[in-house]
């Protein structure tokens, strides 16, 4: 007898929770004085305050940073249009969290509401010693710091979970003929058990039905957000690619929900920033240290963890990246440009970037068309990352 097919509702690996929108944001999370605001400044090239005392950041600062992409650079160099618009990652610098925040300590609920307002998190972890930079707990212990933040997020989620469950039951009682789905209580219990064990909601395998219920009934769970761990090293440790805490941090991450872990050094990045207007000195420093900036990897990873991709429009007047969620259909992708494009969608004329680069020696699509790589796609087409698209639409089409 052949093996029984897996339940089509099963979703293996990390579940995708969160808002179904294109303008998603990453937040910089961590204890005070771990390098969040300095990193935010470097990412967004702004001069946000980054002083050496706790709670320098109170209200969250928001900005955006361009997503580095050689494909975009290639198109810009080919067309050299007057208008160039890359993809952007939106980033929020959140005030430092302290032990007891879930019960009101430090900035308490204000801080946690700022976490709730973003869609993914860069967790900045301090792994450098420096007597001149105050640590909120007087000593550097990244694993302890990781435990502190996860515990506070789980506690806040437990409080939210009990209210969300009560609200859902109340809605059913006052609505005739309304029933809760059969997996309602089991899903809530599964979430509760994870949080009580100080584990994030993302640290489990969820069926598609469970994901749908969580997004509908408890959409503001903090620990359902994707997490990227940025380990802030001293410049010396970053250059020699060694640090006594890295293995311990990696083990902790794998045991508590997983997620990308990227070693960085704000100290090293600041040196690069200081040399930015002296290309000769900058190149000499890079050759001397045999290191490169980690910021491009941080930005690209953040964009990917939000489940975002983009397609290109390219021509004489403009090269532009259009951000969409992975899995978006052609009409909805067209709607990112203008609602009329979606409403009056006829077809999408598409070429994959790799085909365009391989086949094209001059501006235009003539060589791509001659090679049979220029396709016409309809309403069911799922847009792929890096597609170059021209949409055909009829603006007189009536709304249905």
Automatic annotation (TrEMBL):
Residues in a coiled coil are none
User: Which positions fall inside the OBG-type G domain?
Assistant: 24-284
Indicate where this protein resides in the cell.
Answer: Cytoplasm
Q: Which SUPFAM superfamilies match?
A: P-loop containing nucleoside triphosphate hydrolases (SSF52540), TGS-like (SSF81271)
Query: Pfam families under this entry?
Result: MMR_HSR1, YchF-GTPase_C
Q: Lyase: present as a keyword of the record?
A: no
PROSITE patterns referenced in this protein's UniProt entry, alphabetically: G_OBG, TGS
Where is it predominantly found? cytoplasm
Entry binding sites for ATP: 33-38, 233
Sorted alphabetically, which keywords does the UniProt record give?
ATP-binding, Cytoplasm, Hydrolase, Nucleotide-binding
Positions of the TGS domain = 307-393
Assembly mode:
Monomer.
Q: What does this protein do?
A: Hydrolyzes ATP, and can also hydrolyze GTP with lower efficiency. Has lower affinity for GTP.
* Sequence similarity: Belongs to the TRAFAC class OBG-HflX-like GTPase superfamily. OBG GTPase family. YchF/OLA1 subfamily.
What's the protein here called?
Answer: Obg-like ATPase 1
Provide the species name. Answer: Tetradesmus obliquus
